[in-house]
Amino acid sequence: MSPTSPRLMLVVAALLALLSSQVAAVTLTYRMAPHERACFHAAAKEAGEKVAFYFAVQSGGSFDIDYDVTDPNSAIILQGHKERQGDFVFTAKMAGEYTFCFSNVMSTFAEKYVDFDITVEHESHKPATNPLEDPKKEEKKEAVKKDLERLEGGIENMQMYLGNVQRLHKHFRTRENRNFSTVQSTESRIFWFATVESCMIVGIALVQVFVIQTFFNKSGRPRV
Known about the structure:
Layout: H1 4-19, E1 22-32, E2 37-44, E3 50-59, E4 65-70, E5 76-83, E6 85-91, E7 96-103, E8 112-122, H2 138-216
Antiparallel strand pairs: 1-8, 2-7, 3-6, 3-8, 4-5, 4-7
């Protein structure tokens, strides 16, 4: 066995230990009908877990929605009225099922599309075991410990950068959808304005022709 094999095995073991932290996530796009209230649920396995909640109204009405988040005892954690988007992270105070609700009751006829993301991080707080633990080889233990620290730091940085990329992606997607909706609305208004203006011009022209024709068709003494 080559001298690098034990270190490679330790790196793999550390990766498996770090991957034991599970993240349960739900990403959906939901169509809210007028006067509808829809609720979704996510479970926290134990107190102290991080729960992330993101939403953005992609289209419909004024791009706003009512929302509320409640804990397993139905106590309100987060609440908002006519919000376009939100991005929250809170700590679960107890294990159980948390409820995330959207309400479109204030809309009379406008249906809305809402993108939302619910993430619950199930962190394993058990320390990772070292498969090469040997009390007689302190130098090897120190080298392995440094490798693990570098590896953990790199993984944490990767998670942070990926989270930033995901947030930017959601932000630009929301802006794209809203700008597209604005363009469609402006295009429709311009079309109907041009149609009405054209009809008015044609109507005025017909009235002018009628007046002139009536003027010359009048019977009576010719005018000089």
